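Students often ask why inverse folding is considered easier than folding. One informal answer: many sequences map to the same fold, so there is more than one right answer. In these notes we will look at a single instance of the problem. The structure comes first.
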């Protein structure tokens, strides 16, 4: 590029700074001071958007202006033409203008700084500033007006919800802001509803959808009933003594739950009076009961109440008529308590201590109605204001009690409240005065009367009353939006009933910020949405003008390009609550004059504009001063001045620059144009314009750069972007060259970073698969990030491919995840520079396979025949599944069989086994019995680079190997002998003779049963040498069931035989076939014995949580199903209940099985206080066969005697008490008595007969050597159903009637002596009989349960078969019968 010499540049700069002066031949300058026509001032009437050329100047031709100017004058009394501008030459380049944003109309500022004539600003409570207003700094303000409206964020107005009974304060949505809740009036159908008002920042003040509660509800309260953190609603009906509970669930409310509470309900409230984190329901009744109910989450209802009787003042035992209750933290100590008032105006204070109501803690009178609980002395605790028959009283809380302040004058306190309604720091008593309705909803009747109040006095009514809405009936206050201004909740309405909600607000405006407001207003404020407008204040007396006149010259100013200087005016505003100010009606009138001289354009000033209008020649030249405006109005032009010198200015158009690109790099663009010397001595500078599109217009005000030189560098470029550059030269008198042709330049991209090296793509070790690790060597070039490419085949170019990852330039490795295991992958990485350049040719690395290194689970499937035996087929199937697919996995498989005697190898391959005979499996198969476990053990496999390793696995399955046998008896029918005995033989033979030895020791049981009488006899035996011979004793005909009971692996058909028993003398037909083997025909019972239930002696101890352990037994040789029908099981169900413990409702008893049955005892009421010392447990159940369809199910009822535990006294035993479990007999009592008489008679005859028999058979011996064992003559008589008597306890022996058995047997008669000479047979028989008796007695003594018990005195007790108790003192040999006197 050709450079200018330093000398040339210096010369150019020096000459450009020398003033250009032109002189006429005489060298004289001329001055001008009047507009054309000789006017010093010209009034210009503008019509709005119409150019007015009525003002002009006249000068000689062929002169040059050296200076010029005039003033535009505005008078506020004249109509403002709005925005005004001057365009000399009407070329669209204004020499002066008053059109700036926020300038408003000239002479009348009616806009805010943003150009709008209104402005809305959100403000918090307290001080803030108004929007800025611009006023010419040299103006004289003549007048002012402004309207400012305030709308609180809480909104406000009247909500026609209808008449309502009660208003309470709550936080129903847990947002820490209070909401008023309303209980609406009872409707004609007795229904009632609940509704509440809520405020939030999103939707403002709204009313909820009504919630219907219980009928005839008369009051409401809120609290967290169930302790879940949500605020619940409870409505109360005094007519039905019902609490209607609405549980909150976080979004809405569960269906109403109606709970019956205290009868005679007067009032109920909620509060956490026991500090358990949940709110209790506190009730008072007309019957003098103070109660509280807690929530029971187990039963999802109210628990039993804690009740305290409140007596009339000064009485004992005379219940007070309680009317109201208040619950709260009265002493500000974190503990809630209760204040209760009765019908006489007597107050008592109660608290909860250790779960019980405690009180009265404090009592007082003097307030009988209209109580208001509030803090009158500002100490944080609760004081009480209320009315009495003598006037009104205050009870001031001193921290422990309430001190009396009594006043004689009457003040209506009905539905009133105490609050600082206007935030002036003083409490006010707010009393609703309803007034009389005129039937016109547009007028306001009634008001809120105000009296100042403190802890010692109530003032006279204030002259000012509040008028929120027509016919106010009650008032409550709360700060619903938390802005410090309390909202007034006023029940009101004339033709339409509802509630008025709004805050009493105060607003101010201080124009000069001196602390004295120029505008202010107080009152109710709304947002016009519900019939309540915003609170308005106006500048109606030019108060803003007066303040601004004093400060305008000291305000900060801004000067625009036309020399217009504007002062920035900002005023202070203040509000007591959060909301928004709406500014409107702004009009500040001012007088001012503006100098027309400078401008921001190339032409620079009015002088250059006038020079451009000059033409050569002789005579005068008239130059118009065109004015225009946006509105019709009047301005004046004055103080015109101009100075000229002879000679016309040089107005020739300079050379048009021609641009030439020098260089373009990613960092900058450099270009040049014609040498500066070519632009003459009047050259000023070059203006450079930069366009970002070819269609973009050139904005003369937006000069990108200026230069004295013919070259420039633009470093503010973006790689890949295209720019268009235009240049022009500027000269004296505002002359400029034509624009150059645009130079289009695209900023080039740099060379991309080089290919990367050092790639490594590997599987991630010890992972769960789906991932590869990729690394590479860092790039040595300038770059911003890496792009990672991953494909399933080899690739050499990334063209058309999408990167899978973008990696930071600081990293040279990454983890590729989400891949498919075993899939082939190839990877490449390229470096990307800051411009997005990258090399497309790559060398990919691969193939590499991701693999899950955690061994895959192998699911072994092993099945065998569920049961087998020698001679039966056997199947074994083995398979493996991996990921749900059946495969034969690599690795080793071993199958073994585990028996009680050891382990046997079976197979080492995956082949299934199918044998016709189990004996083929192993050589010793015939010795295997019972449960056998087959194990399959798989070794696992390490896999390869594509195949996941397989985990080792093991599984087992069991089968049952039985021994097939037959069980038989030689006879189908066995006849009992005259002693009711018979010998029965049972044979057990193995089907496979080689297994006969395995049957040794097999166990069986037998049951002899008569279906008619229900009598039975049982026994058991062991198979030896393939059979067993046993004796069955049974005194009547019936069936004999023989059941094989073990080992379980013996299968002899049904393992059961059914034989017949006939009594002695019955004819039996011979079994000609001698075939009495067991049959495969399925056996089914035709009778079912009743289960038995034994609970022992039941002593009820109310002091403990008691469970009774009873034994229920199945006497049948098959399983029965038991279904317990739990219905309280009690004779006295109102006082004590018996229920089976959980999980015992239905169960099955196997044949002859006994099972423990647990019965839970639930004491409902105090037994001893109700005179209940014993009773019956009535266990109802139903039993039926488990595996058979007959016999049918049958119900049973067991009656079990219980006795209440003794309490510190000795009670004589009652021999009539019966604690033997009895099945309820459906026969009548007379039948039972007859049966007992018959059986007793038979028993007596049997005893006598047996005694005679023994006497006749005995040899002559000394009777004195006999003892009671020798006289064991009691026959085996079926005892009647006689109740067993309990063992006597705590009774002295001398209290018993002596029933000792004394041997008063007379000398034996001669007939016995005649037997002295009898043969040896009799003697031998007697001796044998004696040995048998002694042996039997010895066995009896050695038995586990002799039935003899010893008390603390050493006395032995024994209960015989018929329930009679016998006792024997220590050292005595004879027994005495116990008789209860």
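Output (designed amino acids):
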């Amino acid at each position: 590029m050709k450079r200018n010499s330093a000398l040339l540049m210096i010369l150019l700069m020096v000459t450009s700074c020398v003033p250009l002066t032109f002189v006429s031949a005489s060298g004289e300058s001329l001055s001008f001071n009047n507009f054309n026509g000789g006017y010093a001032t010209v009034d210009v009437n503008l019509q709005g958007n119409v150019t007015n050329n009525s003002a002009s100047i006249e000068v000689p031709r062929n002169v040059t202006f050296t200076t010029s100017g005039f003033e535009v004058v505005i008078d506020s009394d004249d109509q403002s033409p709005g925005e005004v501008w001057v365009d000399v030459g009407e070329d669209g380049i204004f020499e002066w203008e008053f059109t700036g944003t926020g300038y408003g109309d000239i002479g009348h500022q009616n806009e805010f700084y943003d150009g709008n004539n209104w402005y809305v600003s959100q403000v918090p409570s307290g001080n803030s500033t108004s929007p800025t207003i611009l006023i010419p700094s040299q103006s004289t303000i003549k007048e002012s007006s402004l309207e400012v409206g305030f709308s609180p964020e809480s909104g406000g107005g009247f909500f026609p919800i209808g008449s309502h009974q009660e208003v309470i304060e709550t936080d129903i949505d847990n947002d820490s802001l209070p909401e008023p809740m309303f209980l609406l009036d009872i409707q004609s159908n007795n229904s009632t509803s609940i509704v509440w008002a809520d405020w939030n920042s999103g939707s403002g003040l709204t009313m909820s959808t009504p919630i219907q509660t219980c009928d005839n509800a008369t009051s409401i309260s809120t609290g967290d009933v169930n302790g879940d953190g949500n605020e619940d609603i409870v409505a109360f009906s005094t007519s039905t003594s019902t609490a209607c509970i609405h549980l909150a669930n976080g979004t809405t409310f569960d269906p109403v739950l109606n709970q019956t509470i205290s009868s005679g309900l007067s009032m109920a409230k909620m509060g956490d009076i026991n500090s358990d984190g949940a709110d209790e329901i506190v009730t008072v009744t007309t019957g003098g009961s103070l109660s509280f109910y807690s929530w029971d989450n187990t039963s999802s209802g109210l628990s039993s109440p804690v009740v305290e009787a409140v007596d009339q003042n000064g009485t004992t035992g005379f219940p007070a008529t309680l009317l109201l209750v208040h619950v709260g933290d009265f002493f500000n100590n974190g503990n809630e308590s209760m204040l209760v008032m009765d019908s006489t105006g007597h107050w008592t204070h109660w608290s909860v201590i250790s779960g019980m109501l405690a009180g009265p803690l404090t009592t007082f009178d003097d307030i009988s109605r209209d109580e208001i609980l509030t803090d009158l002395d500002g100490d944080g605790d609760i004081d009480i204001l209320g009315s009495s028959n003598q006037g009104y009283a205050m009870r001031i809380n001193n921290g422990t009690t309430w001190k009396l302040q009594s006043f004689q004058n009457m003040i209506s306190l009905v539905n009133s409240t105490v609050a600082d309604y206007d935030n002036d720091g003083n409490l006010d008593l707010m009393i609703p005065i309803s007034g009389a309705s005129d039937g016109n909803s547009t007028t306001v009747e009634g008001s809120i009367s105000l009296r100042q109040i403190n802890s010692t006095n109530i003032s006279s009514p204030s002259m000012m009353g509040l008028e929120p809405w027509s016919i106010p009936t009650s008032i409550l206050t709360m700060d619903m939006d938390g802005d410090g201004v309390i909202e007034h909740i006023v029940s009101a309405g004339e033709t339409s009933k509802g509630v008025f909600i709004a805050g009493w607000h105060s607003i101010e405006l201080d124009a000069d910020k001196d602390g004295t407001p120029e505008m202010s207003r107080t009152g109710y404020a709304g947002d016009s949405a519900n019939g309540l407008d915003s609170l308005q204040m106006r500048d109606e007396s030019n108060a803003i003008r007066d303040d601004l006149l004093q400060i305008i010259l000291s305000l900060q100013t801004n000067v625009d390009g036309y020399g217009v200087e504007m002062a920035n005016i900002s005023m202070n505003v203040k509000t007591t609550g959060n909301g928004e100010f709406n500014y409107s009606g702004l009009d500040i009138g001012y007088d001012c004059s503006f100098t027309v001289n400078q401008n921001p354009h190339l032409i620079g000033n009015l002088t250059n504009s006038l020079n451009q209008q000059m033409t050569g020649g002789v005579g005068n030249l008239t130059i118009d001063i065109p004015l225009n405006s946006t509105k019709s109005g009047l301005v004046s032009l004055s103080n015109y001045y101009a100075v000229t010198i002879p000679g016309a200015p040089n107005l020739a158009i300079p050379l048009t620059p021609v641009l030439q690109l020098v260089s373009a790099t990613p960092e900058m663009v450099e270009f040049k144009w014609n040498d500066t010397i070519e632009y003459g001595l009047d050259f000023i500078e070059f203006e450079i314009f930069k366009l970002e599109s070819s269609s973009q217009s050139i904005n003369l005000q937006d000069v990108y750069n200026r230069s004295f030189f013919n070259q420039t560098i633009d470093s503010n470029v973006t790689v890949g972007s295209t720019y268009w550059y235009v240049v022009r030269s500027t000269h004296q008198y505002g002359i400029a060259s034509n624009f150059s042709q645009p130079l289009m330049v695209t900023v080039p991209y740099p060379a991309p970073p080089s290919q990367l090296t050092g790639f490594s793509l590997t599987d991630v070790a010890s992972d769960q698969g789906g991932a590869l690790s990729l690394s590479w060597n860092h790039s040595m070039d300038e770059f911003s990030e890496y792009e990672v490419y991953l494909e399933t085949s080899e690739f050499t170019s990334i063209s058309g491919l999408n990167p899978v990852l973008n990696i930071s330039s600081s990293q040279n490795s990454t983890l590729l995840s989400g891949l498919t295991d075993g899939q082939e992958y190839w990877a490449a990485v390229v470096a990307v520079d800051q411009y997005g350049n990258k090399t497309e040719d790559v060398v990919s690395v691969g193939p590499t396979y991701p693999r899950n290194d955690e061994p895959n689970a192998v699911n072994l499937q092993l099945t065998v025949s569920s049961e087998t035996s020698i001679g039966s087929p056997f199947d074994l199937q083995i398979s493996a599944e991996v990921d749900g697919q059946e495969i034969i996995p690599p690795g080793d498989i071993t199958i073994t069989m585990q028996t009680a005697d050891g382990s046997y190898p079976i197979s080492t391959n995956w082949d299934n086994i199918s044998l016709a005979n189990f004996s083929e499996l192993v050589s010793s198969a015939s010795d295997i019995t019972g449960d056998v476990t087959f194990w399959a053990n798989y070794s696992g496999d390490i896999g390869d680079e594509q195949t996941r390793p397989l985990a080792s696995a093991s599984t087992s399955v069991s089968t049952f190997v039985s021994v097939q046998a037959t069980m038989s008896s030689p006879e189908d029918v066995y006849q009992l002998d005259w002693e009711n005995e018979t010998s029965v033989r049972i044979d057990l033979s193995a089907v496979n003779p080689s297994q006969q030895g395995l049957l040794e020791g097999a166990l069986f049981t037998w049951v002899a049963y008569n279906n008619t009488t229900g009598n039975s006899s049982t026994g058991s035996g062991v198979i030896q040498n393939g059979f067993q011979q046993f004796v069955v004793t049974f005194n009547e005909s019936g069936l004999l069931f023989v059941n094989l009971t073990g080992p379980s692996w013996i299968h002899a058909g049904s393992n059961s035989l059914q034989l017949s028993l006939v009594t002695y003398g019955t004819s039996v037909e011979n079994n000609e076939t001698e075939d009495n083997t067991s049959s495969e025909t399925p056996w089914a019972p035709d009778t079912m014995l009743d289960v038995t239930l034994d609970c022992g002696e039941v002593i009820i101890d109310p002091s403990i949580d008691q469970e009774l352990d009873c034994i229920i037994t199945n006497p049948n040789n098959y399983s029965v199903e038991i279904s317990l029908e739990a219905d309280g099981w009690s004779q006295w169900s109102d006082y004590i209940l018996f229920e089976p413990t959980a999980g015992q409702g239905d169960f099955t008893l196997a044949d002859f099985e006994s099972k423990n049955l647990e019965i839970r005892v639930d004491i409902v009421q105090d037994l001893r206080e109700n005179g209940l010392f014993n009773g019956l447990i009535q266990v109802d159940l139903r039993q039926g066969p488990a595996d058979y369809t007959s016999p049918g199910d049958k119900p049973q009822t067991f009656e079990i005697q219980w006795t209440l535990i003794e309490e510190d006294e000795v009670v004589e035993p009652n021999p009539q008490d019966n604690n033997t479990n009895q099945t309820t007999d459906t026969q009548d009592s007379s039948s039972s008595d007859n049966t007992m008489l018959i059986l007793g008679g038979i028993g007596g005859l049997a005893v006598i007969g047996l005694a005679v028999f023994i006497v006749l058979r005995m040899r002559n011996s000394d009777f004195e050597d006999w003892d009671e064992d020798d006289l064991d003559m009691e026959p085996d008589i079926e005892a009647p159903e006689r109740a067993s008597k309990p063992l006597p306890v705590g009774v002295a022996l001398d209290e018993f009637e002596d029933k000792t058995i004394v041997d008063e047997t007379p000398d034996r008669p001669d007939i016995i002596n005649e037997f002295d000479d009898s043969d040896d047979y009799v003697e031998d028989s007697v001796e044998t009989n004696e040995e048998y008796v002694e042996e039997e007695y010895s066995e009896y003594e050695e038995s586990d349960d002799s039935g003899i018990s010893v008390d603390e005195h050493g006395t032995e007790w024994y209960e015989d078969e018929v329930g009679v108790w016998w006792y024997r003192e220590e050292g005595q040999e004879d027994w005495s019968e116990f008789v209860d006197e």
